[in-house]
C-alpha cells in the first residue's frame, strides 16, 4: 500500500469489468477517491462501488463514452465537484475485434482507433488541463498493450491504436515533465479478463497463449492494477514517459527461451 494515495482522486475509464474494475478496487484499498467511468455492464456498478467503499475508499460512478469530448469533460468536472480534485487519470477503456486486414472496414478501423487512441488522448488532455489549472503534480496512466511492440495479424487496428498510445504517452511526458505531471503507459500481456473469457475457456487455446509467456501463466487483472498503483504513487516519482510491460516476459522473444535459435 502507498500512503500518499490516501485521499487522492483517481478517475478510471472503462472500469466496469476487467483491468479497470481491478484498478478501482485497488485504489479503494489505497483509500483513494475513485470515479468509475463505464459505458456498458451497468449491472456491475453497484457491487463495484460497494467493494471500493468496503476496502476503505470513496466511490462514484458516471456513465460516459470516452470518444465524446463532452463526456470526458464531464468526468473531470464531476471529479472536481464531488471529490474536490483530480490527481490521477487512468485511461483504460479499450476494445478489440479480430478481422483479417484485407477485410477490415473503415468503420471498424475508426471505431477501435476512436475508443483506444482518441479516448486516451481526450482523457489525457482534459486531465492535464485540469492539473495545470490547479497546479497539481499529477499522474496520467494509459493502458496500452504488448501489441504496441508486438505485431498482431488480424488486429491491425488494435495494434495501430496501441502503437499510437505509446508515442502519445512519450510526447505528453516530455511536454509536461517541467510541470511535474508524469505520463506513463502500462503494457499488459495476456490477462484473464472478460474480453478473453471465451478464448481462455478452451484448454488448447489457453495452452497456446501460455506457451508465449516465459513465466508460463496468464496474468490476473489485479497484477495490472498493482502496476497502476505504483505508477500513481510517489514511489515512482522519477518515472515518466515509459511503457511498463506487465506481461510475464511476453515481449522478450519467448521462442528463444532455453537457448533456442
Can you describe what's shown?
The protein is α/β, with parallel strands linked by helices. It has a single domain (3-245), classed as 3-Layer(aba) Sandwich (Rossmann fold), CATH 3.40.50. Helices cover 43% and strands 14% of the residues. It contains eight helices and seven strands, in the order E-H-E-H-E-H-E-H-E-H-E-H-H-H-E. It has helices at 18-29, 45-54, 69-83, 106-133, 156-176, 197-201, 203-210, 221-232; strands spanning 9-12, 33-38, 58-63, 88-91, 139-143, 182-188, 243-246. The chain has a seven-stranded parallel beta sheet, sandwiched between helices. Helix 2 links the parallel strand 2 (33-38) and strand 3 (58-63). Helix 1 crosses helix 8, helix 3 packs parallel to helix 4 (106-133) and helix 4 (106-133) runs parallel beside helix 5 (156-176). It is globular. The chain starts with 8 loop residues before the first strand and ends in a 15-residue tail after the last strand.
Summarize this, please?
Belongs to the short-chain dehydrogenases/reductases (SDR) family. The chain has 261 residues and is α/β, with parallel strands linked by helices.
SSE layout:
Elements lengths: L8 E4 L5 H12 L3 E6 L6 H10 L3 E6 L5 H15 L4 E4 L14 H28 L5 E5 L12 H21 L5 E7 L8 H5 L1 H8 L10 H12 L10 E4 L15
Parallel strand pairs: 1-2, 1-4, 2-3, 4-5, 5-6, 6-7
Helix pairs in contact: 1-2, 1-8, 3-4, 4-5
Amino acid at each position: 500500500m502507498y500512503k500518499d494515495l490516501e485521499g487522492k482522486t483517481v478517475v478510471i475509464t472503462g472500469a466496469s469489468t476487467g483491468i479497470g474494475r481491478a484498478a478501482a478496487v485497488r485504489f479503494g484499498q489505497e483509500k483513494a477517491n475513485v470515479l468509475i467511468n463505464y459505458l456498458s455492464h451497468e449491472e456491475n456498478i453497484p457491487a463495484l462501488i460497494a467493494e471500493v467503499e468496503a476496502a476503505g475508499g470513496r466511490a462514484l460512478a458516471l456513465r460516459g463514452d470516452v470518444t465524446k469530448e463532452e463526456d470526458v469533460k464531464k468526468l473531470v468536472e464531476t471529479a472536481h465537484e464531488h471529490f474536490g480534485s483530480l490527481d490521477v487519470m487512468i485511461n483504460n477503456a479499450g476494445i478489440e475485434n479480430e478481422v483479417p486486414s484485407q477485410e477490415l472496414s473503415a468503420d471498424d478501423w475508426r471505431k477501435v482507433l476512436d475508443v483506444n487512441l482518441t479516448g486516451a488522448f481526450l482523457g489525457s488532455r482534459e486531465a492535464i488541463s485540469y492539473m495545470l489549472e490547479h497546479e497539481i503534480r499529477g499522474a496520467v496512466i494509459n493502458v496500452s498493450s504488448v501489441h504496441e511492440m508486438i505485431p498482431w495479424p488480424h488486429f491491425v487496428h488494435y495494434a495501430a491504436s496501441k502503437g499510437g498510445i505509446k508515442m502519445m504517452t512519450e510526447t505528453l511526458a516530455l511536454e509536461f515533465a517541467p510541470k511535474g505531471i508524469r505520463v506513463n503507459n502500462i503494457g499488459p500481456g495476456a490477462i484473464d479478463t472478460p474480453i478473453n473469457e471465451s478464448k481462455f475457456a478452451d484448454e488448447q487455446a489457453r495452452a497456446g497463449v501460455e506457451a508465449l509467456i516465459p513465466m508460463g501463466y496468464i496474468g490476473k487483472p489485479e497484477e495490472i492494477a498493482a502496476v497502476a498503483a505504483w505508477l500513481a504513487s510517489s514511489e515512482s516519482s522519477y518515472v515518466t514517459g515509459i511503457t511498463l510491460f506487465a506481461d510475464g516476459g511476453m515481449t522478450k522473444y519467448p521462442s528463444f527461451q532455453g537457448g533456442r535459435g
